[in-house]
Each structure stands twice: as structure tokens, then as C-alpha cells.
Amino acid sequence: MPLQALCRILRADRLTSDTFSFLLDAGEMARSAQPGQFVNIACGEGHLLRRPISICDAEGDTLRVVFQVRGEGTAWLAQQPEGTTLDVLGPLGHGFAYPETGKVLVVGGGIGVPPMLYAAKAAPGGAVAALGFRNQQAVILLEDFQQAGCPVKVASDDGSVGYHGFVDALVRQYLEEDKTISAVFACGPKPMLKNVYKAAQDFGVPCQVSMEERMGCGVGACLVCACSVGGSYKHVCKDGPVFPAEEVDWA
Amino acid sequence: MSVINGVEMGVTLAGMPMKNPIVVASGTFGFGREYGQFYDISELGGICCKGLTLHPREGNPPPRIAETPMGILNSVGLQNPGVDHFIAEELPYLRQHDLKVIANISGNTPEEYGVMCEKLSGAGVDMIEVNVSCPNVKCGGLQYGTVPEMTAEVTECAKKHAGNVPVMVKLSPNVTDITAIAKAVENAGADAVSLINTIRGMRIDVKTRRPVLHMNTGGLSGPAVLPVAVRMVWEVANAVNIPILGMGGVAKGEDAAQMLLAGATAVAVGTACFADPYAPLKVRDDLAALAAEQGLQSVSELTGGVKPW
Asked: How far apart are the first and last CA of chain A?
């Protein structure tokens, strides 16, 4: 059940030039959050639409969100200092469905990395991670994955850190090396998701992807965040954001 | 239940009594289930349901939404599960609650409006809102709402098949003279009018030089349109004798009071729900407080109370 709550920022950190991390006092919202779900945060008086932000972690009453400044709304959000109260709706959407046995390979690209941390930490059979970034300056959350005991491989578009290339190559490496991986969970740009799905498919491992689309209400009432799944429009906020990759219309 | 802050909030819209004058606008509240997770929708006077068509519609490709100064543009394109699905799956849910159910319909032909009215009146909705003003579909929709003769034809067809269920026609603001359409609708037998639907607009991403909406243009709603809506409600109130459901940018009790003063009998809250799911209830309570402050016994005393210069 989604809730609306005023959540205090317990801790605010700047992770890169344009990426920020908030630890929120979210009470019941944090306790009921599932990996892959998101929250919808009001971003000041002038912005009528809330900004959907994936849940990066949840522990007890605290909820962590990591977001990138993309426009005016997120720029406003980034300026909010510790102690400020945010108007938050959540937890929203459907998250990842874990396999009954085996390890999960979590795959994140850029600002698609944050939800994968929670997905990795909550994996009952353990997780390994493949994370892709533009360059070394854009790397986020590496220590968090390591602290969670999750092995990580990194790729960068320009080769400034880790493997020089795209993250789907790392997915292939993992699936080649580790036959105990029974599911791939991915979040990132659509072309990346498509390539990750292709890699998972080649190894016969089921894949779930977290989709993105411009959102209105965030709860399934306004029908704007349409995403073609199984030949018809589903809605990212309510039916997703996580969908089985084989059901997404990738064209 | 209908008295808040000592003010009688009950109103009657075209013979349909409501416990308060606040309804939620079509397309912003689905069929009530989503926001029903946050509060009991029986708190509302009524719901204008998501727009229905005779057959299910997929709607437009995304992106379907863009934020604009104090507003949003949308181009959903009437995605809906069809009238039969609504009657079988959604109406029973709504009927578990104590609020007026207003079905909103769009057709490709006047006959389609008739068929839907027959089905919906048979199913026992409380009112039918005839959408002749959707800016986001290729046929029907807006077309029917901009030519008085065509609007009248659709209205007559709807009335003929709606039995005892009142018919309210939703007017488009995308016309030179909204009163001409309102009069045509009144003469064709409509029981009420609702206005305004969204105003056609456009936003361009200057980096990509692409319109933000996939359909290039869309409908503007939110506080940005409130003054246009109030002006049009006032003009229509002066032109016709049938009651008005006023809407367009209402986000506060004071906005709702403006609508009533301009001549509306009831008020719909739409886009404000996206920012705050509780917006309709806050508008209701703030309106009651405002009426109490002015020493009114009934909120309906506000209707048409504007004192023009």
C-alpha cells in the first residue's frame, strides 16, 4: 500500500558533480519497500509533478534515494539540506521477483545503478553486480556494493575505469563463469537493457528489467507513463517499473 | 456528513444530489481504485471516470506528458478498457462507495455515443459526461466540440439513449466563442455542461528540437489554466440556464470558490491530484472554511454570486 508522508532528510551527500544521495526518515514507507520500487517526491511549489526516484536502499525506518540532476525539479531537490522535510509518495510500483534458488546478477547503467544496490542486498541467494558508467567521474556506490559483500565488475564507456566498453560484455563474462546465477535484474538506458536481455537470453537465464518513462501521478491513475509490453501499453508506475524482459516490446 | 464547519456542502447538479460539490475530473483519477488506496473515495461528491470509448483503446505512444509553467501538457489519447469492461469490472467497485458515478464517453460517430449511453444508463451510472472535446484523438473528440451543429447532434443522440440518466456535455475551450457551443448543447436537451477541457498546447525540447510530446501537441491543464476556465464558466453561466460543473486548474478552496461565484454548481479537481492525492479533500475542506468565514449556511449560496463591475 502506498503512503504519503513527510520525510526528513537525515543525511545528504553529493556523490558526483550531478548525483546526490539522501537518507530519509520514512517510517512505514521504508519498512514496506521492496527492491525495484520507487518513490515520487514533490519538488517545490512551482513543479506540479512529483519526481519518480528509485529506492536505493531501505533499512528499518530509513529509505535511501540516489538521484541525478536532470532538470529544474531535481535541481531543486539537490539543494535541500539535511533536516529538511520532503513530501514523499511511496513505495510505488512492482519490484523484482527473486528466483527460488541461485544467485542474482544485478546490472546497472549510470543512474540505473542505485536500485540495484537494494536488489543485491535483498537477494536471498546472494548477488553479483555488473555496473556501467560513462567514465571514472560518474562512478557511484561502488563501496556500498562491496560493503554489502557483493562482488562487482565495472565497465566504462571511455575505459577510464574497469572494462572499456558496455556492461553487457560483463554480463556475458559472469554468465560464462558462474553457472549458479539464476536471474539477471537490470536497470539503465533502454539500449543497455536490450543488450543485457540479449546476453541473458543467449545463456538461457531469465531477465527482469526496470523501465523508465515520463510519469504523471505515479500511482496508475493518469496513464501517461505508457510502455509497450506484450503488444499493448502497460504503465511503468503501476504495472512496472520492473517487467520480465521477454514481455517488453524492444523495437 | 454533508455539513462541514457548520456549512451545508450538499449540492444538486442537474437533479443529482451530491454530499459536497467536489468531484474529480475525468482522466486524472482513473476509476477510483488508485487514489482509493490513500483514502475512502466516498469522501468525494462524485467521480468523473476515465474517458470511455465503445471499444478498448491503446492510446498514444509515449511521451504523453510534459511539465510546463504551473501546468502540464498531456496526450494520453483516450487509452481505456472500453465501456463493457467498465460496466463489468469497474462500476461494481465504484458502487461499493457512496459517491456519484459520472461516466465520461467519447465516440467516433453520434451513433456510438448513443450505444454507450444505452449501455451505461442500463448499468445505472448516475450521470453521463459526453466528451466532445478531447484534443488528443484523431476523430470524434475535439471535432465534435467545435462546431455547434455537430455538438448538438451528439447531444441529441446521447439524450435519446440515456433514459432517465442526466447528460452533461464537456465543452472545449479551443473555440472562438464557447457560449455558442453551450447554447447549442442546451437547445439539444443537455441537462448540464462541464468545462473546461484542456487547452491545446505544445512544448519543444530546444536541445533535440523535438516536441516533448510524441503527438507534438497536447492538452494543457493545471493552475495555469484557472483564469481561462473561470472566465469561460462565467460566460457560459450568463448564456445558458442549465447547471455547470466547473473545472480547470482548481487546486485550492479559493479556486473552487471562484468557480462557484462564476456560476458553477459543482467543481472538479483534476491535475492537482498528481501533486497531492488528497487535493480534492483539501479543496473541499478549504472551501467549507471559506464559506463559514463568509457566514454562509450553504456552499450553494456562492453559485453565480460574482459581482461584475
From this structure: 33
- The answer to whether B74 contacts A222, with C-beta atoms less than 8 Å apart, is yes
What pTM was estimated for this model as a whole?
Answer: 0.94
Distance from CA of B55 to the nearest CA of A (A): 15
Among B37, B62, B276, the residue with its CB nearest the CB of A226 is B62
Q: Cα A243 from chain centroid? A: 13
- Taking one residue from A and the other from B, the number of pairs with CB-CB distance under 8 angstroms is 99
Written as nine digits, the cell of A161 is: 575505469
- Classify residue B143: in a domain, yes or no: yes
Domains parsed from chain A with CATH numbers? 3-92 (2.40.30.10), 103-210 (3.40.50.80)
Average pLDDT rounded to a whole number, residues A81-100 = 97
Cβ-nearest to A221 among B29, B275, B276: B29
What's the pLDDT score for residue B138? Answer: 56
Q: How far is B68 from chain A (nearest CA, A)?
A: 8
Q: Do B70 and A48 touch (CB under 8 A)?
A: yes
Whole-number Å distance between alpha carbons of B275 and B273? 5
Asked if A42's CB is within 8 angstroms of B275's CB, the reply is: yes
pLDDT in tens, A41-58: 999 988 899 999 999 999
Whether A219 sits inside 8 A of B72 (CB atoms) is no
For residue A70, give the C-alpha cell: 536532470
Q: Classify residue B309: in a domain, yes or no.
A: no
* CA B239/CA B33 separation, integer angstroms: 37
Quick check: A222 and B30 CB within 8 A?
yes
Residue B307 lies in a domain: no
CB atoms within 10 A of CB A108: 31
Owning domain of residue B185: 3-302
Active-site residue identified among B49, B117, B134, B273: B134
| Structural domain count, chain B | 1
What's the CA gap between B5 and A134, in Å, rounded?
58
The ipTM (two decimal places) reads 0.91
Give me the pLDDT at residue B139, please.
Answer: 56
In a domain, B187, yes or no: yes
Question: Any idea what the CATH number is for the domain that residue B70 is in?
Answer: 3.20.20.70
The predicted structure's pLDDT at residue A251: 77
pLDDT at residue B92 above 80?
A: yes
